[in-house]
Amino acid sequence: MSLGRIGQQAKLCLKNQSKYQHLGAFVPSTSNTESITKASQEADERHDRDRPLSFIDGELIAIKDNFCTTDQPTTCASKALQGFYSPFSATVVERLQAAGAIIAGKTNLDEFGMGSHGINSAHGPVKSPASDRGSQRSVGGSSGGSALVTSTRQCFAALGTDTGGSVRLPAARTGTVGFKPSYGTVSRWGVIAYANSLDTVGVFGRSVEAAKQVYRLIEGHDPRDPTSISQLTRSRVESQVSCRPRNKTLRIGIPREYLLKELDPLINKHWSLALQLLRGQGHSIHLVSLPTTKAALAAYYILAPAEASSNLAKYDGVRYGNRAPNDRDKPNVLFSSTRGHCFGAEVRRRILLGSYTLSSTAIDNYFIRAQKVRRLVQDDFNKAFAMKHPLLQHQEESLRKEDNKEETGVDILITPTSLNLPPLLSSLQSDQNDDPTKEFQEDVYTVPASLAGLPAISVPVPCMDWKQVGLQVMGQYGDDERVLDAASKLEELLKDADD
Asked: d(Cα 282, Cα 302) in Å, to the nearest integer?
């Protein structure tokens, strides 16, 4: 039987899955060749009858292994959930399947989403196909598997989760597009939580247009998710966004606090060149200040572990998850060894950190102060953007005087996505032994947008071999379409300049 267009695409993806299997991007045994082939044939038949279910009908989309699925195990790359099958699928998975998308498999990640390099997994690390003189480099984390399967054409697009940069950082490391929407626009129901107030479903694509197509299918209110924005609130946000004119030229902000001396020279060079290209197209560049940025990373690594320590309390082998064998043999012992046995070192570290910051002796000095810093980060962004935050009904006078708001505010911010080029995996393993907190600095450019719940996207700069660079576009809350449009313009300019 001759294959149609969809079937041929699926065949190529499956061939690449076999070719790159050694990189550890897919969780073992979650990609079913037979079912994918059958589904692609059915999609071809729908297209032949001119009745596709959607514009991605028949496309292969990979799912990060912290999204619940009924037909494949959901492990979060942890021994605690080894062999676990969910009785339901996540809302975004259901929406993709209803649109005719084919699930390509479940992708590897840092355990429970905790990590910036894709190495904290019970399934082994995710490795980059591009090496430096034979040495493997990081693909970023925690959604490194989803980024890698997208960049190596093992699927059309992939879903990940972004808590403090877990979609944008891997996108920058692998030369793909990684989009984090505004918090609450995409349902989190069926996504295993790391930090509830920060977790956001994100999309990987090889182009901004591909990421946009998938995003538009999965966004929308979900009554099962308490953090999902209601239809009434969405209407209010859309009304305010529509009031802002869509000018051909943009006012682009550059935060002075992001001009760090630690920034890799190659990344700084591409950042400067991109701004020059944008200025040449008539867009204006403006220096802005986000003073609380300096405290944002510290606040994030107090708040996220605190929420994680609460969310992961249920994995004790009694109420939920697997149980260590030696706990069963000890009299009067319920789960003392299970959590130590099932959780990796990084997860244990963050649980301990979070438990301490929530303790009665430390909560005022750490957790409460971190929440105040988070609000200040949000206020900084509100001062910088021309558009008011659509969910704040009463703007404080200190944020912006209305008479000069349009003149001084910017439409978007453009920054680097990462501080450094992809590091060697061997150096990361030694760093974990010497200073396990060193990897936290990788999130310095991505964390502020997460704390404020803003839309942000990483756009790849065409580079050679392993020297991958990503540039980040951020916008005001709810202004996702403007961010995507700006990212498309930037993507086109970068490709034209490379040619």
From this structure: 42
